[in-house]
Design goal:
InterPro entries: Glyco_trans_2-like (IPR001173), Glycosyltransf_2 (IPR050834), Nucleotide-diphossugar_trans (IPR029044). Pfam families: Glycos_transf_2 (PF00535). This is Glycosyltransferase. It comes from Spirosoma foliorum. By secondary structure, this protein is α/β, with parallel strands linked by helices. It has a single domain, classed as Spore Coat Polysaccharide Biosynthesis Protein SpsA, Chain A, CATH 3.90.550. The protein has an 8-stranded mixed beta sheet, sandwiched between helices. It is globular and about 55 Å long.
Length: 254
């Protein structure tokens, strides 16, 4: 029997992209989808766009303390067997939920899975292909590399069983950039993820993306998050070296 799936979208002032995000969820050929959008009282045209789909999703529009708070509100409301979050500038590829639901139905003991994702620009055109292939390579290796040396997990392409929240709680709301990385590391303490080779989603990078012009703060928070879960000196040294290399590349290309 196919599991039900809950998708949570945190939203704030994403009128440029939110319609594609919503339609990518509603267009999924899957029988049991609960779609929850948590909007922090957007001041642009985001809310009118969302309300146009009010009969096909659950909308909560109220003030929140940030993205992580909004995601947690959705996760706490969710009733699906499987849950995920899809940010309001990303989108599902066709057939994603069918593939995910089928996998969990065939693997009842698997707690979470992650797949590949396309990296796209504001127009939806593929970019950063070397980065994508590098992360795919890491995910084919050991968790010490794709979760220890760096976070090579595609956030929008990651799904887990809702009942793990009874054991792990919810996302850490003090984290602004790495709430996903922290969550993967907590899930990893229970079980390594199943790795799917298929592209499930598109992850969008644009001028307003959080990591685009705040990468130094992001890498500082990344190392603090990593340090809570990995104590061995070789992997700590490797993680710091990797962050320094990526920061140098950012400085060069910006």
């Amino acid at each position: 029997m196919l599991p039900s799936i809950s998708v949570i979208t945190p939203s704030y002032n994403q009128a440029k992209f939110i319609r594609q995000t919503i339609e990518s969820v509603l267009a999924q050929d899957y029988p049991q989808v609960e779609y929850i959008v948590i909007d922090g009282l957007s001041t642009d045209n985001t809310l009118p766009i969302i309300r146009a789909y009010k009969d096909r999703l659950i909308l909560i529009a109220e003030r929140d303390s940030g993205q992580t708070d909004a995601i947690n509100k959705g996760l706490q409301m969710a009733t699906g067997d499987i849950v995920c979050w899809l940010n309001s500038d990303d989108y599902f590829l066709p057939g994603t939920l069918a593939l995910v639901g089928d996998f969990f139905a065939r693997n009842p003991n698997q707690l979470w899975l992650t797949g590949d994702c396309q990296i796209v620009d504001q127009l939806g055109m593929p970019i950063q292909q070397p980065v994508r292939h590098y992360k795919r390579l890491l995910r084919s290796l050991t968790p010490a590399l794709y979760l220890g040396m760096t976070n090579a997990i595609c956030q929008p392409s990651t799904f887990w069983r809702r009942d793990v929240h009874a054991q792990l709680g919810f996302l850490t709301e003090s984290l602004h950039y790495t709430m996903d990385y922290d969550w993967w590391l907590r899930l990893q303490q229970l079980q390594s993820p199943a790795i799917l080779s298929q592209s499930l989603t598109a992850f969008r990078i644009h001028a307003e993306s959080k990591g685009g012009n705040q990468y130094r703060r992001q890498f500082d928070e990344d190392y603090q998050t990593f340090s809570q879960y990995w104590s061995g000196m070789p992997i700590r040294w490797l993680h710091r070296l990797h962050n320094q290399a990526i920061t140098s590349i950012y400085q060069f290309v910006k």
